[in-house]
Amino acid sequence: MKDENDFKNVYRLGFVSFFTDFSSEMVLSILPVYILGLPGASIATLGLIEGIAESLSYMLRAVSGIMSDKFRKRRIFILIGYGVSNLAKPLFAVTSTVTQALSIRVLDRVGKGIRTAPRDALISDSVSTSKQGEAFGLHRSLDQFGAIVGPLTATIVMVWLGWTAKGVFWLSLVPGTLALLVILFGVKEIVGSETRDFNFLAGLRTVLRGKFLLLLIVVSVFSLGAFNFSFILLNAKEMGVSEALIPIVYAVVNVTHTAIAIPAGRLSDRIGKERVLLMGYIAFIATTGLLALAPSTVPSAYFIAAVFGVYMGVVETVQRAMIPGYVESNLRGTAYGVYYLVVGVCFFFANSIVGTLWENHGLFYSSIYSGVLSIAAIIGLNLLNNRKYT
Length: 390
Known about the structure:
The protein is mainly alpha-helical. It folds into two domains: about 1-200, Up-down Bundle (Growth Hormone, Chain: A), CATH 1.20.1250.20; about 200-390, MFS general substrate transporter like domains (Growth Hormone, Chain: A, Up-down Bundle). It has helices at about 1-30, 30-35, 45-70, 75-90, 100-125, 130-160, 165-170, 175-185, 200-205, 210-225, 230-240, 245-270, 275-295, 300-320, 330-360, 365-390.
């Protein structure tokens, strides 16, 4: 009866992510402008803050994933991680220097690094393999719904109620606290007792071989070309969308992302996760083709954003749902940690390369770069799929 009873755990973890993203996106929607208003701040400074914070976050995901396997405890890492992030963000209201902003942003991302791999492992521990896609789709949808509600709330209180950015930062404590209450009183532990003879090097060696290693190679190739939403927003501006309406383009990405996650997850449970991931990769290729060839019009910009959101909803749901089928249950935390570390490193290089190509050679060549890597990943995924089913 695992699916009936423990799927409640997935819902609860989904609401934890909803409230946390509600809090986070409320802050992040205004944070860049706020930081640029601090003494001595610049765009380069903002980039440095984000780079340092995200790098630490991805490194910590590997550590926390391994530790959750070692102690066979997921919930404590989840609680600490969400607690650090949700208590850190309101502190932006008392920052007066770039150094203070850096410290708080790093603290926020450290919290994300601590919680992410154990949380995904707990989601996978809570349901059977046949329901992994649906579980991760549900979690992804609730997470992204928070990403829609957060910026809207920030806009409402600032425009209609006349609040300042500092007021929004303090307000973020409310949904953040609700997330912690759900963990404390709703989320339950699934895994067993501590594995005292756990050896993390042996665990890494076990994970980094066979089918999971092949999956990681495919994901790495794809991720090296998979730029983030910032380039979609930049393209929208170049296609004629006014600066005031750029947040609407971002909302289109989030809406299609949210709408596709659960259907994609359920479909992956029915026909195979590799096959649905292939659809996600094709959606990304469609995005790169549209970026290179679509007419430079405002409707095109919104359509490209919608297709990009479909890609994100499918890929970010199904890639996570695939991992439990490739590793033993007692090493899922380690596997998720390694997965996030690899994706994070590739993310850094992908955005750097795409940005450089775009700036120096134009959108067409950066799109070709991403498209070629995506085709290579599709070939690899087909080979992996054939290997799995033969």
